[in-house]
Design goal:
The complex is a heterodimer of chains A (207) and B (765). Chain A has 207 residues and is an alpha+beta fold. Chain A folds into 3 domains: 59 residues, no CATH class; 60 residues, Alpha-Beta Plaits; 55 residues, no CATH class. Helices cover 21% and strands 22% of the residues of chain A. The N and C termini of chain A lie far apart (56 Å). The relative contact order of chain A is 0.19.
Chain lengths: 207, 765
């Protein structure tokens, strides 16, 4: 069965935060956005990146695994839900366990909150609000075959942090073909660049 | 998106859902299920995205995606929250009047009192000072029906020749350039054509922030392998991933465009067959671009010569190439020429009229296209007819049922009005759909002009900076409280539907104008009972004109998903692509004009070492009257900032986030600095959506293009300094290239309208 999911393509993101605005429109958490848009480093670039819940599949949902109250439930089709408010004890284990920094802790409500892939909409065959609104389709919703047919870029669903890795339901779209998104490798590259070890030759772009 | 909200608000790193400011009332009805989805379009920019409004118990409670051909269910953040204006707590719900005169307070009044006061004042002013002493200053962010009635109200209701609109500040240079080159002013192709292009040159448009929905069409073109070239002084989100970024010095674009054309000539990339069969004027253009070597472009525009060459090759070698341009090149004292230089490139490549090829303007305002077609412009009558062509006057006079002699002649342009207000030639002005105190350059002059009016009458739905200075404020309607049509940046006529009644005593704008006309004793010319009545008259009036809406019906718009004008008959499907076989000039050929580089009116000097440019932010729309009141949007960019390159900031001791002072010869303002390497080191950028002490137009130069009077918002000389830096004691001077003495037509604030009202000379177009 073709699994419909999100594809996150930062090369398309313009940082307009339409996804945040749209996420806030959801009746189940009106006024609160579960998707986050961040500048990668505004001091260097206008590059931005949206972060949604990646709905981890293998290992399945670290947030749910560490929840002592079994508040975070996973649907049979693999969508990791937000913590059930009647069960959540506000311990923040999930916040610390998530490899992507997705669950947020609402201090006022003493509850964990996160993206549940707009379960109310997607269960009815609609797109989640973020991908529905996204004017540039940096957040794109559909299945892998549809993506391959319509779009350029290389989707990967495996993210590596050094020795550890996680396979997710949501795809990152990379500019070059790769087996996985190598987070620590990219961080090391960035550090080298920052400390001048591999400073890229900068063209005189303005005269 | 240029700024991170961290610069304004400190966020809780643990949880940041709640830093977004207060929410308007509808949010309390979060659980309500809509009993109706009203199909309509967004009220903001020229894209006019399709959307559904959720309506529950007569209240607009939310938004839902609507698959429409050009936005395909997507929305930008403005579109998502647009509905929150409907029940907004700051809405004006009853007329206000300044009973104590200037300096008094705005007090609640009845409609009768407010309208009778306005009408009695206007009658007296017109008796004592002539009909032209009352002016109308209108806008384009409203339906075609309202734009049409604004023009008719001025000419028939008041009999004044002074009506102009805010499109003067927006589209006038592009409109004139297209009319000169093609004989018709409309983007020649639909947005859905963009992915057909193999190379796209974006000249002076921050597409990502101003037209987020257009971005997806660009990315689709890129997915197909198209190259993307961006001409912009800032590395915008569009420029970031473009194949080539041309970081041009503000106001010098012609040097780059001409140099590109010269390279096309040299490298045999010019379509000589097309030029011979479809275009006039190529020989003059060929000679005119000869001096613009890549090195000359580098000297004038500051773009490395190799990049200019690379751009010309990327653009010129593509089988299908498209130029998209916007205010970045048009807001200039040579705005018309900038656009003509783009058109020359596209014509030389033989692209105009091809699917996915040619040149297209990105119209900024919601109804920026329709608003400039139906007669609210100083020199224009409905259907893009000219007010100084006797046959066209006759046609409209017949539709309106008045003698053609009673039809006033051309009046003052929007940028000429402040001068006439200061000099007393205009005694009273009705402003609708406009916020002059934010949008016009050199706010100090504008304020003097407005304060000299008695009365200043404003129709608005929020108390804008301009409404706050008015003597009478009349509460109008937001877009979805009325129905009608708008024409988007493609020339597609779409239908706006009504989702809610206006709040309190507020009325639809056309009802207010019709009521005023009745009270002025001209009611027989305004017998409308619905917006549809106005629409039918508009169709009739436009019939046979350049912008022919004669064959468009509201039913057809629903059936077809919009109709592109010209559409002369009801069985005509409309015209998505223009100029496929012939141009709109009588001989069917396009015209090229030789363009030479002329500098901006004001350039940097030792005292003012920077070029200041202004522009939009994705969260705000025009003067911000609407978007600054919408919690989510305003929380993202609650105040303006100035972008400066680290290389320029370091010697001045300016660090990221510091409050700094930016000065120009007009004034100074204090704001936060955003120190980023994504802007030219000789350029400063400030967004323009803010009012009062935060308005960048306190600083901008009121010099305009001498022909169309569009202000040069995008280039003036400026200085930036830390707040603790001493203010200069001696009068600092910029480099002045033109003065009101040497170029009076470039300075309407100083020279004013010089046209003789009795001049009946017919112009030939």
């Amino acid at each position: 069965m073709a699994v419909k999911t999100l594809f996150v393509d930062p090369t398309r993101c313009i940082g307009c935060r339409a996804c945040e605005a749209a996420c806030r429109e959801c009746d189940s958490h009106k006024g609160e956005s579960m998707v986050m848009v961040d500048f990668v480093d505004r001091g260097r670039s206008v590059a931005t990146q949206p972060t949604v819940c990646m709905h981890c599949e293998d290992p399945i949902a670290p947030c749910a695994q560490v929840c002592p109250a079994v508040a975070i439930l996973i649907t049979p089709d693999g969508v990791v839900q937000q913590a059930d408010p009647s069960r959540c004890i506000g311990c923040r284990n999930c916040v610390y366990a998530c490899p992507f920094g997705v669950p947020k802790f609402d201090v006022g409500a003493k509850l964990m909150k996160k993206c549940n892939l707009c379960y109310d909409r997607t269960a009815q065959g609609q797109k989640p609000w973020c991908a529905q609104a996204c004017p540039t389709q940096a957040l794109w919703y559909g299945d892998f075959e549809e993506f391959a047919g319509q779009r350029r870029g290389h989707p990967v669903d495996l993210t590596r942090f050094g020795e550890q890795q996680v396979q997710t339901r949501v795809f990152h779209v990379l500019p070059q073909a790769a087996q996985w998104l190598d987070v620590s490798g990219l961080l090391q590259d960035a550090a080298r660049e920052l400390h001048g070890e591999a400073a890229p030759r900068e063209e005189a772009w303005v005269l | 998106m240029a700024v991170n909200r961290d610069i304004f608000v400190r966020r809780d790193p643990n949880y940041d859902f709640q830093t977004y400011g207060p929410e308007p009332g509808q949010w309390q009805q979060a659980a309500a299920l809509p009993d109706q989805l009203v199909p309509t379009h967004c009220c903001f920019c020229g894209v006019q995205c399709g959307m559904f409004l959720k309506v529950e118990g007569g209240k607009v409670t939310g938004v839902e995606a609507r698959e429409y051909e050009h936005n395909r269910g997507h929305l930008c953040p403005k579109g998502v929250v647009a509905y929150q204006q409907v029940d907004h707590p700051e809405r004006l719900t009853h007329p206000l009047i300044r009973r104590g005169g200037k300096g008094g307070r705005l007090e609640r009044a009845s409609w009768d009192e407010a309208l009778e006061y306005v009408v009695s004042r206007w009658r007296r002013i017109q008796q004592e000072h002539g009909k032209d002493a009352v002016a109308i200053y209108s806008g384009s962010s409203m339906t075609n029906e309202k734009c049409y009635i604004a023009g008719k109200f001025a000419r028939v209701g008041l009999g004044t020749r002074h009506i102009d609109y805010n499109g003067r500040l927006c589209m006038s240079s592009a409109a004139t350039a297209y009319t000169k080159a093609f004989g018709l002013d409309r983007a020649p192709l639909p947005m859905t054509d963009i992915p057909l292009a193999d190379s796209i040159l974006i000249a002076g448009s921050n597409v990502a922030e101003c037209f987020p929905i257009v971005t997806d069409w660009l990315w689709q073109a890129r997915d197909r392998g198209a190259s993307l070239i961006v001409l912009d002084p800032r590395e915008t989100a569009t420029a970031r991933t473009a194949d080539l970024w041309l970081p041009v010095r503000p106001g010098t674009d012609i040097a780059v465009l001409n140099a590109m054309l010269r390279i096309l000539m040299r490298e045999g990339l010019v379509d000589e067959d097309y030029l011979a069969t479809r275009v006039n004027g190529w020989d003059e253009v060929r000679a005119a671009v000869e001096p613009y070597t890549p090195e000359e472009a580098e000297r004038i525009a500051g773009v490395p010569a190799e990049r200019v060459v690379a751009a010309a090759r990327l653009y010129g070698r593509a089988a299908r190439s498209l130029i998209l341009h916007a205010r970045g090149i048009e807001h200039s004292t040579h705005g018309v020429n900038n656009v003509l230089a783009c058109i020359n490139l596209a014509l030389a490549r033989g692209q105009v009229g091809q699917p996915g090829g040619g040149v297209a303007m990105l119209t900024g305002q919601g109804n920026g296209q329709g608003g400039r077609e139906h007669g609210q412009k100083a020199n224009q009558l409905p259907g893009y007819r000219h007010i100084d062509v006797p046959e066209e006057r006759e046609q409209i006079a017949r539709v309106w049922g008045i003698p053609a002699e009673d039809l006033p002649w051309e009046g003052a342009a929007a940028t000429e009005m402040p001068h006439l207000m200061v000099s007393g030639e205009i005694k009273s002005c009705l402003v609708l759909c406009s916020n002059l105190m934010v949008s016009l350059p050199d706010v100090a002059v504008v304020q003097r002009a407005l304060d000299n009016l008695d009365p200043l009458v404003v129709i608005d739905f929020f108390l804008s900076e301009t409404a706050a200075r008015a003597d009478v404020v009349l509460p109008g309607s937001v877009w979805c409280e009325d129905e009608g049509t708008t024409t988007n940046l493609e020339g597609r006529v779409v239908k706006i539907n009504r989702a809610a009644p206006p709040p309190g005593e507020a009325r639809r704008d056309w009802e207010i104008l019709a009521d005023l006309a009745h009270r002025l004793g001209r009611g027989q010319y305004f017998p409308y009972t619905s917006a549809h009545d106005i629409w039918q008259e508009l169709r009739e009036a436009s019939r046979g004109g350049l912008a022919d809406y004669g064959g468009i019906t509201w039913e057809k718009i629903d059936r077809q998903g919009g109709v592109f004008w010209p559409c002369p008959t009801e069985d005509h499907p409309g015209t998505p692509r223009l100029f496929t076989e012939r141009f709109a000039h009588p001989d069917g050929r396009a015209r090229m004009f030789p363009i030479s580089y002329t500098p901006p009116a004001e350039e940097p000097s030792a005292d003012f070492p920077f070029r200041l440019t202004s522009g939009r932010v994705v969260y705000h729309y025009l003067s911000g009257t609407q978007t600054r009141r919408l919690g989510y949007l305003n929380s993202q960019a609650p105040e303006p900032w100035v972008e400066i390159h680290p290389r320029a900031a370091a010697p001045l001791g300016i660090a990221d986030g510091d409050r700094v002072r930016v000065r120009t010869p007009r004034g100074a303002m204090e704001l936060k600095a955003l120190v980023v390497p994504t802007i030219r080191p000789d350029t400063l950028f400030i967004p323009f959506h803010y009012g009062n002490k935060e308005a960048v137009n306190q600083l901008t130069n009121p010099a305009t293009d001498p022909t169309v009077k569009i202000p040069e918002y995008k280039a003036c000389a400026a200085a930036i300094e830390r707040l603790d830096a001493p203010l200069p004691v001696l009068a600092a001077r910029p480099k002045v290239n033109y003065t009101p003495e040497s170029q009076p037509k470039m300075f309407p604030y100083t020279a004013g309208e010089t046209k003789d009202p009795a001049s009946r000379e017919a112009k030939r177009y």
